[in-house]
Amino acid sequence: MKADKNIVEQAYAFFHQKLKVYEHSMSEREMDHIEDCIADYANAMSKELFDELSQGNPSFLHEHTAFLNDLRKAVSEMENGIGEAD
User: What contacts 13, CB < 8 A, 6 or more positions away?
Assistant: First the structure.
């Protein structure tokens, strides 16, 4: 990843924690809250990192129907890229 290693590690920790809760949640309200938190984080995160993760998809991490797949992809990409970050 080209994004700063500290930024990637911070985003990874947040996304990974939220993914684990989301995957095991039985509460629609909790899941909606996590989707909102992640979307807010994505709006404020490093543009460079968002662009790398989203691959040009502006609705990445913002669309309910694709959210779980997007979040899994983001976590996986960061997991694989943390060692490569500057």
Answer: none
Each of the 86 residues of the chain gets a pLDDT tens digit; together they read: 788 889 999 999 999 999 999 999 999 999 999 999 999 999 999 999 999 999 999 999 999 999 999 999 999 999 988 645 44
Other CB atoms within 10 Å distance of the CB of residue 59 = 12
Query: Shortest CA distance to 69 belongs to which of 59, 58, 61, 77?
Result: 61
Tokens 């909790």, residue located: 30
From CA 54, how far away is CA 58, in angstroms rounded? Answer: 7
Q: Helix or strand or coil: residue 52?
A: helix
